Amino acid sequence: MSRPSALLSLCLLLLLGACSSSSASGDGADVPGTPLRVTYIAYKSGQRLELVNEAHTGRLEQYSAVRADAARKVQTNDVMHGLVEVLEDNGFEERAQAGSAPANAGVMSWALEIEDDQGPRHIGPVPGMTAEENHKLRRLAAAFLDTYNATYGLQAVELKPDSTFFQTPTSKRRN
User: Fold this and answer.
1) Between the CA of residue 139 and those of 29, 60, 113, what are the distances in Å?
2) Are residues 140 and 50 in contact, defined by beta-carbon separation less than 8 angstroms?
């Protein structure tokens, strides 16, 4: 599948997901389908972003509890199935390693992980890859990040002591 047609397919799935009604169920077990989780890990910054489908975690279950961060978002089963399909059709399976992404960077600067009924598998750039292989991997990461950024999330997060919302590390608190 070419990049433009893959992105068009993904955009159409996102549009359909946005227009569909969301489940009011409290947990993912009430929603039929294969539980899916796709995770992007940026090792240098420590950022970890997750997309799960409603068969994995219900929206109510995810967004009604106060959490330490807002990194997990819930997407419809159809959109998540479409995302995984786009990733697989564009080379994820060709380079995927069985198991979860490494907890520490090692030689990878980032990793993309899919977990479904086959278990977790991951990819990431490693030394010795050609420029074309690196470009293909960056396109897979971009497909995930585009979907993540297009996914609406309403997560309540804990405010850590001595911090404020929207405070950046370089900003100074005013007394």
Assistant:
1) 32, 32, 14
2) no
CA separation for the pair 23, 59 (Å, rounded): 7
Residues whose CB is less than 8 angstroms from the CB of residue 45 and which lie 6 or more positions away in sequence, other chains included: none
Give alpha helix (H) positions in the chain: 3-19, 59-63, 77-89, 92-95, 131-150
Contact 153, 132 (CB under 8 A): no
For residue 77, which of 49, 54, 50 has the smallest C-alpha distance? 54
Reported as a single tens digit per residue, the pLDDT across 73-126 is 999 999 999 999 999 999 999 999 999 999 887 889 999 999 999 999 999 998
The C-alpha atoms of residue 79 and residue 16 are separated, in whole angstroms, by: 8
